[in-house]
Specification:
Shape: globular
Radius of gyration: 11 Å
Order of helices and strands: EEEEEE
Number of strands: 6
Structural class: mainly beta
Strand content: over 45%
Largest sheet: 6 strands, antiparallel
Distance between the termini: 8 Å
Strand order of the largest sheet: 2-1-6-3-4-5
Amino acid sequence: MDRIGSLIYDEGSERMDIRFGLEEYYGGLHCGTGMEVMLDGKWVPTRIEMNINSKWYLVGVDADSLIGLTVKI
């Protein structure tokens, strides 16, 4: 069953995470984790990666910031 949430950055783990509710989280994303992101009203398949500058990004997604993006996993 797919779950929809918002991308956040967890400073404690230094990882991106997905927040599903007030106190419910995915538990930390790792490079290569697949998901879908809502872009222009459509779900777009992607995966999360980290570049050589230790910056998280979604493959094929042009976004200044990942924080707050709606994702489905």
